[in-house]
């Protein structure tokens, strides 16, 4: 059922003094339809009315089937939503002046008398992004007549589950970050043991208990706890009114004051008892009142600074009234003669049990406690939903990363306590640093970072993931931007016809394109685009359904798209983050959308064989070569015109070097010359003194950080060729036989996935012409044939496109390996 054109009546209340009407649409203005979950038990809103000084004659409210119907239950179909305009009309029956009241100043001032008819109040209410409860009050001459409590629902997420989960998860990460002050709606709260409660929490608790606080003090004032102090004075005997045993005892000790001739004392000790209120309990009460006054003044100061241009005078008036009442208690009651409290050793039974004192102490403890959502005692506003969602996205990303990776620098967030409620300081960039325990690579997640060098206009995306990969000096950056917006794709809408399922608005995707293109890094006169991919987070639950969406598929195509992200729906994001972090720098690079003509400009990547790995005939040869920084090899075995050699590496055979076998030493070629074998200082072992040899002059021989182990293989002949990337990355000898870019890419991806990676070659002797057959991980073989990937598992073959395999190596292999292990 669509609601178009004029607003309809949503609420009608008639009392003996006035009528109260609210008109509007029971749906979000962008949707023009009722909630699709209107029959579910969770989709019920609170609606309460409290007649205080009036009598209700009729109470009707909107229903989706029967328009207006009489009020029967406090739970009704929701018809108040965020970002919807609602017209309020209040008409007096007897001509008395009426007032509309709401705690939020903007809503309170929105409903005013008609200029020509003071008996009618009217105006529009819009709760913007505030959801939860809201109280609308009708007053006459400052006296409350009627209070209506309504519940405002979000239009983009499920209120009873998603919204409450957002609140809970944000508060678990940073307590009271979700709370605000005097917004258009509120949540019911209960007390919670917390430290560093905000000024808004303190003031909300104080407002709720203040009248009872005053009553408790009045009870104390009637009968303050007191002590009886004994005062001893030596006086002329004629002025002593009452003789006590202590006075007689004193006189015996002081006989000089007794006149034996007269038989009468001249002086006596008088003991009087006086009531004193100057005790610990009353000192504590005085200290307590001063602390509360101090906290109210701090609240006022910060409130005035925060709301400089929009101060609500009623808040100021209420706070000052509290201060005045507390100050009167200090200066015009028995407390004015009470001393200061300097030390609290322990609390007495009087504070814990005496009438008045125990209540006052209980209220003071309540003021020191924090609040938690879903209670019944207090109420407090929440952040606007878009801001709450933005906070949650950042905190949830960090929570996901902490489960898999080591936290290096815990500068999680700059929490700003300077105002009356807790917020994130957006003048400060929060950067959380992590380390991948498998690779040792560092990466970071930044919140509210100022990206780009302002070549044109600086950008501030919500979250930026920055990756640094082994073997690369480049930083790869990915934007994740929280957008509390969703198109529900209702049938017969253009969005549904185009995309089929709910998803982000098109303009938010355009914002991601802007981020990727506008964030530029400048190095002198060199300008580079730094963002590889940009993605929208939007509030939606059905992850499986969204996999079919155009804006999810676009991530794989151009690295711009969207992810559904809500409590309980984080799998797509978690998997994607892990893929980005675990994949190689080359895969990160290939996510870039390169400009047209790049391949033609750069040419094909040359997998150059620029390393000669030479074997040794004798063990002594190693010592001489290392000492004199050279390596020699017959000219007949090497064609230098075919290759541009840069390094020489030495292979030590298992037979000659035992536990030291493998490739351990390498050196950069400084130059070379041709010499006859007899001119080389290493002694001849056969009659070839006239044979020409290449003698390579080495800068300095160095040891590899980790030797390349034979693993049961050996070098056949005098040498093999390989690539310097493989020389510094390979762990086993067969890996040096990788010959092309495709093989290298597969090896690179698989080596990050599993340490136990085997290279398959046809025999155990490696030659210059040796070609690999494939790779093996946990009994799963991966081979390349005609630029197709063949995965062999349990004699079954799976074939797929090379590009598809490279883009999701981790996902494909993880599923196969887990299946194999099971």
Radius of gyration: 41 Å
Distance between the termini: 52 Å
Low-confidence stretches: 596-605
Strand content: 25-35%
State the helicity in percent bands. 25-40%
Tell me about the largest β-sheet.
7 strands, antiparallel
Mean pLDDT: 82
Helices and strands: which structural class? alpha+beta
Number of strands: 45
Number of domains: 6
Task: Using the alpha-carbon principal axes, give the shape.
Answer: flat
What order do the strands of the largest sheet run in, or round the barrel if closed? 6-5-1-2-8-11-10
Give the helix tally: 22
Write the layout of secondary structure elements.
Elements lengths: L7 E8 L2 E7 L20 E2 L1 E4 L4 E8 L3 E4 L4 E2 L8 E8 L6 E3 L3 H4 L3 E2 L6 E7 L5 E9 L2 E10 L6 H15 L13 E6 L6 H24 L4 E10 L8 H9 L4 E2 L4 E2 L1 E10 L3 H27 L6 H19 L17 H5 L3 H12 L1 E4 L4 E3 L4 H20 L1 E4 L5 E2 L6 E2 L5 E6 L6 E6 L15 E6 L6 E8 L11 H6 L6 H13 L1 E4 L2 E4 L1 E8 L4 H4 L3 H9 L1 E5 L6 H12 L2 H6 L7 H5 L8 E5 L4 H9 L1 E5 L12 E6 L1 H4 L4 E15 L15 E7 L3 E7 L5 E2 L3 E4 L1 H6 L11 H13 L3 E5 L3 E2 L5 E6 L2 E6 L2 E6 L2 E6 H6 L1 H13 L1
Parallel strand pairs: 27-30, 30-31, 32-34, 38-41
Antiparallel strand pairs: 1-2, 1-5, 2-8, 3-7, 4-13, 5-6, 8-11, 9-12, 10-11, 12-13, 14-19, 14-20, 15-18, 16-17, 21-24, 22-23, 24-25, 25-26, 26-27, 28-29, 32-39, 33-36, 34-35, 35-36, 35-37, 40-42, 42-43, 43-44, 44-45
Helix pairs in contact: 2-9, 3-5, 3-8, 5-6, 5-8, 20-22
């Amino acid at each position: 059922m669509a609601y178009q054109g004029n607003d309809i009546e949503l609420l009608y209340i008639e009392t003996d003094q006035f009528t109260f009407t609210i008109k509007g649409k029971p749906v979000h203005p962008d949707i023009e339809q009722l909630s699709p979950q209107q029959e579910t038990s969770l989709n019920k809103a609170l609606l309460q009315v409290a007649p205080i000084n009036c009598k209700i004659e009729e109470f009707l409210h909107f229903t989706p089937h029967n328009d207006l119907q009489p009020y029967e239950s406090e739970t009704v179909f929701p018809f108040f939503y965020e970002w919807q305009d609602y017209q309020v009309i209040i008409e007096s029956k007897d001509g008395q002046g009426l007032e509309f009241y709401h705690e939020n100043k903007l809503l309170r001032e929105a409903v005013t008398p008609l200029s020509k008819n003071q008996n009618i109040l009217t105006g529009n209410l819009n709760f913007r992004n505030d959801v939860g409860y809201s109280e609308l009050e009708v007053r006459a001459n400052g006296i409350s007549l009627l209070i209506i409590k309504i519940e405002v629902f979000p239009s983009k997420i499920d209120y009873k589950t998603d919204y409450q989960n957002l609140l809970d998860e944000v508060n678990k990460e940073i307590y009271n970050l979700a709370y605000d002050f005097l917004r258009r709606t509120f949540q019911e709260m209960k007390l919670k043991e917390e430290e560093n409660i905000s000024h808004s929490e303190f003031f909300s608790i104080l407002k709720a208990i203040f009248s009872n606080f005053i009553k408790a003090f009045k009870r104390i004032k009637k009968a303050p706890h007191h002590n009886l102090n004994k005062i001893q004075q030596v006086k002329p005997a004629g002025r002593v009114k009452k003789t006590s045993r202590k006075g007689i005892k004193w006189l015996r000790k002081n006989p000089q004051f007794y006149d034996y001739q007269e038989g009468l004392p001249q002086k006596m000790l008088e003991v009087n008892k006086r009531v004193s209120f100057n005790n610990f309990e009353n000192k504590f009460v005085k200290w307590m009142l001063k602390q509360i006054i101090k906290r109210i003044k701090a609240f006022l100061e910060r409130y005035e600074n925060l709301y400089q241009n929009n101060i609500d005078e009623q808040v100021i008036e209420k706070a000052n009234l509290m201060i005045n009442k507390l100050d009167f208690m200090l200066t015009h009651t028995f407390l004015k003669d009470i001393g200061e409290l300097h030390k609290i050793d322990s609390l007495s039974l009087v504070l814990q049990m005496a009438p008045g004192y125990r209540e006052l102490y209980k209220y003071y403890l309540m003021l020191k406690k924090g609040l938690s959502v879903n209670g019944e005692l207090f109420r407090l506003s929440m952040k606007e939903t878009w801001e709450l969602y933005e906070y949650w996205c950042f905190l949830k990303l960090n929570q996901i990363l902490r489960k898999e990776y080591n936290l290096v620098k815990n500068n999680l967030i700059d929490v700003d306590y300077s105002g009356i409620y807790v917020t994130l300081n957006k003048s400060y960039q929060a950067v959380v640093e992590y380390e991948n325990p498998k690779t040792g690579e560092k990466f970071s997640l930044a919140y509210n970072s100022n990206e780009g060098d302002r070549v044109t206009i600086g950008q501030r995306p919500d979250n930026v993931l920055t990756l640094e990969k082994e073997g690369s000096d480049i930083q790869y950056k990915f934007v994740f931007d929280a957008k509390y917006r969703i198109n529900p794709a209702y049938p017969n809408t253009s969005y549904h016809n185009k995309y089929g399922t709910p998803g982000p608005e098109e303009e938010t995707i355009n914002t991601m394109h802007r981020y990727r293109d506008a964030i530029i890094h400048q190095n002198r006169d060199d300008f580079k685009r730094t963002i590889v991919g940009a993605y929208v987070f939007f509030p939606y639950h059905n992850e499986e359904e969204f996999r079919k969406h155009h804006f999810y598929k676009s991530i794989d195509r151009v690295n711009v798209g969207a992810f559904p992200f809500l409590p309980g729906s984080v799998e797509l994001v978690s998997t994607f983050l892990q893929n980005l972090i675990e994949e190689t720098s080359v895969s990160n690079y290939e996510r870039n959308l390169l400009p047209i003509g790049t391949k033609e400009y750069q040419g094909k990547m040359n997998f150059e064989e620029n390393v000669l790995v030479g074997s040794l005939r004798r063990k002594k040869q190693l010592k001489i070569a290392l000492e004199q920084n050279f390596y020699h090899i017959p000219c007949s075995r090497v064609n230098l015109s075919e290759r541009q050699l840069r390094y020489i590496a030495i292979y030590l055979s298992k037979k000659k070097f035992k536990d030291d076998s493998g490739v351990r030493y390498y050196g950069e070629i400084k130059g070379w010359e041709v010499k006859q074998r007899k001119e080389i200082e290493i002694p001849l072992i056969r009659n070839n003194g006239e044979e020409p040899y290449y003698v390579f002059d080495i800068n300095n021989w160095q040891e590899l950080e980790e030797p390349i182990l034979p693993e049961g293989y050996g070098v056949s002949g005098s040498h093999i060729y390989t690539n310097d990337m493989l020389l510094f990355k390979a762990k086993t000898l067969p890996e040096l036989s990788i010959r092309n870019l495709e093989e290298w890419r597969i090896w690179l991806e698989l080596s990050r996935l599993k340490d136990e990676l085997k290279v398959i070659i046809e025999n155990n002797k490696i030659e210059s012409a040796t070609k690999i057959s494939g790779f093996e991980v946990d009994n799963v073989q991966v081979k390349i044939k005609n630029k197709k990937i063949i995965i062999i598992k349990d004699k079954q073959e799976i074939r797929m496109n090379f590009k598809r395999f490279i883009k999701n190596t981790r996902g494909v292999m993880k599923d196969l390996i887990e299946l194999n292990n099971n």
